[in-house]
Amino acid sequence: MEALFAFLGDYTIQNVLIGAALLGLSSGALGAFAVLRQQSLLGDALSHATLPGVALGFMAAGTRHLGSIMLGALLTGAAAALLVVLLTQRSRLKTDAALGIALSTFFALGVVLLTRIQQSGNASQGGLDSFLFGQAAAILRSDLWVMAALALAALGLLTVLWKEFKLATFDPTFARSLGLPVMLLETALTVMIALAIVIGLQMVGVVLMAAMVVAPAAAARQWSTRLEGMVLLSAAIGATGGVAGAVLSATGRNLATGPLIVLTITAIVLFSLLAAPERGLLWAAVQRRRAGAMLHDRRVLATLLRLSDEHADRAYGAEQGMLKVLHGLGTVASLHGLERRGQVRRVEHMPEEGIHWALTESGREAAEQTLAELEAGES
Question: Is the pTM above the cut of 0.85?
Answer without folding.
Answer: no
